[in-house]
């Protein structure tokens, strides 16, 4: 629709002004629009691939940004180059469309050069929106159990169990000689080092100094306990050399490892749970069971 057109119906006046004619079909603008929508689709596919392959939030964000940017550019070019330009003025007394207005609208939508009749553009737009919609379904997979994930553990159970080897911060299995005398070594269950309730520590003490044996037993003075404070769950990594005591930095609870890791100062009320250990046939330290008590904060024990 070009130039200025005016139509009058029953009690209604419709005036449409289109100062700029749309570009002809097949112009460079059309190709640019299709390209933008294809880029949008590629971005959506990239997002889905990054999510599916575990590429990280950075690449997922890049994919989404490309998808929406392509969509925005395509729609902007479409409106800028193919839609009729200029302003529109519509005056009417009622809301019911007049027959003349309906005729004008129908003519605009069915004209051969109507932007909404360009199949290539509509197909590209449909592809971009379909790809975006499909990509949006991928995060739903996060609601499903991960393949190979272990079933939910009961409260009080940790990844420690018979045969689980002790590894250090770098995932390296530990031998007894890797735990020096009177030095704290943080240990984790092999294969599940990230479990929040599993951190533990090992210390080698003089066996004759134990006034109460460690709950998990010891290997010639080498014993292990939970690293989580029994007050509120902070890591208790402040070992006082020579004293056999370990401090929690959060609220200054102190545990006496020579006396069963019982609390001797601060708000903690429970002893640190012990971790029973042994030396496996391969010479590495391994657990013989879970902690001797639930690790970490013991709010549920409070009467
Ligand atoms: S968390 Fe350790 S004393 Fe409070």
UniProtKB/TrEMBL annotation:
Spans annotated as Disordered: 1-28
Gene3D superfamilies given in the database record: Rieske [2Fe-2S] iron-sulphur domain
The record, for PROSITE patterns, names: RIESKE
Q: Which GO terms describe its molecular function?
A: 2 iron, 2 sulfur cluster binding; metal ion binding; monooxygenase activity; oxidoreductase activity, acting on paired donors, with incorporation or reduction of molecular oxygen
- Listed InterPro entries: Rieske_2Fe-2S, Rieske_2Fe-2S_sf, Rieske_Fe-S_prot
Origin: domain of life: Bacteria
Note whether Iron occurs among the keywords: yes
Q: Which residues cross the membrane?
A: 33-54, 61-79, 121-140
Keyword set for this entry? 2Fe-2S, Disulfide bond, Iron, Iron-sulfur, Membrane, Metal-binding, Transmembrane, Transmembrane helix
Q: Where is the Rieske domain?
A: 185-286
- What does this chain do? Iron-sulfur subunit of the cytochrome bc1 complex, an essential component of the respiratory electron transport chain required for ATP synthesis. The bc1 complex catalyzes the oxidation of menaquinol and the reduction of cytochrome c in the respiratory chain. The bc1 complex operates through a Q-cycle mechanism that couples electron transfer to generation of the proton gradient that drives ATP synthesis.
- The identity of this protein, by name, is Cytochrome bc1 complex Rieske iron-sulfur subunit
User: Can you name the source organism?
Assistant: Micromonospora olivasterospora
